[in-house]
Each structure stands twice: as structure tokens, then as C-alpha cells.
Amino acid sequence: VLKFVEVSVRANKVNILSVDASDVDIKTYSVPIDSTLERVTFSVSGSDISIKIQNPDGALLTERNGLQRLLSLKSAVSVAVRRPRAGVWKVSVNCSGSYTLRITGLSPLHFLYGFSLIPLLNGRGGLLRRPYAGFRNFAVVKVQGLREPGSVYKVQLVDLVGKVQQEVIFAPRPEEPFTFDWVNFQAPRGLFYIRVIGRDLRGHEFYRCSPTAISAVLPDSPKVSADSLVEVLRGSPVTLTCMVDSVTPFRVQWTKGRDALGPVLTRVGQVNVTHSIRVTTDRDEGSYTCFASNAGGTAIAVTRLVVKGKQAYRIYT
């Protein structure tokens, strides 16, 4: 039973606000608390830290009027409020240096997200948890635990200090009112949160942030494979094949020694790149290298061509 409760609580935990600040002075945050939140926890850590919380009426919360103290140290404070009144709350933080502020809650209203380098047909397919750096990605944001007349109207990318880096209108799919396809998504530099803003069933504004900060990643280097040994009769045609697989655009070329065999090709996805010899001679024998590179690195595959036997003849009858 306790394990079931633990899993249920973890599943309903949502992130409302996350800030890593360097302000030495008192800072006040306006935080919308919606009607789906059953409990809200305010946690702050730093040097000589203190926190004050005011409800929508402007009343200062204390342990006498609903504030539950979870942790009280000189460098960390955590308090909670059960069944908070919906509206805009004020959270004031006083610290002698940098600090972190986390506001989380228990609510069935949350969202899922994922990234891809190619559009997903009907929104289906494999999604990545992090976007690729230096590329235009496709992002999908799906809000769950909300139904009409509740609505979502904005998606933001927020940096660690709480500053909005990008903002777009939540334009839902025609058949899915709470799913949004962000075309040409380009990740900002550094860490960022995804924030979804909307209104719940009762018209109260809600904030939901991604559980953790996100950073763009470089793609893996291409996967390259080719036959290690190819044998051919002297005078016969032969085709060397190199298979390259990369989720991002890559450049590929066959070489022999220092000689380039054909132009550098630019491709994406899973591609077979070939080099053909119409009539093989002893001079064609040797090692051939398939070079492929993308933003994540370079990979090679080497094929050794062995020319054997007598000249092949084609007999027509």
C-alpha cells in the first residue's frame, strides 16, 4: 500500500516554477496557483535564506493559518500548503547570495514533450527527450489532465534565472485540442525549461514546467558499415557499397589512399553509397575507405579489394 501511494504521489508531482538566481536583494515572484493543485511545496536554498508567502488576498501565511514547515535550516527552507486557494500568490525570497527556488505541486494536470528531427506522421513515432543542437527540430507538447472549457494558450522556453527566451502560441491539432506541434523548434544555448501556460476548468491560470532543465545535445557520429573484403575476377565489374546511417545530415565520400573517388555527397537518414569499377585491373586492388561525418563526429569503413584469377569472359550463345 505504501509503495502504491509513493508511486501515485510521484506520478502527480508537477513543477510550477524553477529559478536559480544570483540576486542579493529581496525578490518577489508572482505565481499562479490553479484549482487542480491539491498541495503546493515551496523550497528555497542559499546562504542565510528566508521566504515569505502571501495568498491571493495578500495575507501572509504562517503555521497558524495553513503553512506546514517541512524543513528549516539556515541554508534551506521548505514549506507546504494543502488545498491552496486558486489565484496569484506572492513568494518573496531574501538571501545574502545566490539561491535556488523550486515550487512544485500535486496535480493531475501535467504535460509531456519530445523532440524529433523529422515531422512525425500523425504525431506518432519515436521522440527524443532532448533536441539536437544546431538543427531545426520538431517538438511535440501534449497537455494531460485537462478538458474543455480548460485551455492552453502559450508555450515558453525559460532559462535558469526565469527569463523567457522564446514564446509561441499553443496552436493545437484539429483533432487533439491539447496537443501542439512546434515546427522549426531551435533550442536556445544552455539549459532551459519548457513552460506551458493556460487556464483550468474554472478559468484559473496555470503554470507547468518541465520536471528538469533541458539542454540540446550533439548527434551521434554516423554509423558506417561496409564489407571488409571483396574479391573480384580481373576484368570484371565490381561495386563497393557503404551503408551510412545518421539522424542528422552527413557528408560522405569514397577514397583510395589520398585520392578522392567522386564528389562529396550530402545525405540524411540511412543511405547506401557506392563506388563502381566497370573493368577491374591489378591497379584497382587495395584498400578503399568510406568517410562519413556529421556535427557529432566522423566514422569510416574500410573495404579491401582483391583482384584474382584470369580475366573473366562473358560467353554469348
Automatic annotation (TrEMBL):
Membrane-crossing segments per the record: none
The membrane-topology field of this record reads: Single-pass type I membrane protein
UniProt-listed Pfam families: GBD_Hemicentin, Ig_3
Tell me which GO cellular component terms the UniProt record holds: cytoplasm; endomembrane system
Q: What are the alphabetically sorted keywords of the record?
A: Cell cycle, Cytoplasm, Disulfide bond, Glycoprotein, Immunoglobulin domain, Membrane, Signal, Transmembrane, Transmembrane helix
Q: Does the keyword Nucleotide-binding apply?
A: no
- UniProt entry tagged with the keyword Signal: yes
Q: What's the protein name?
A: Ig-like domain-containing protein
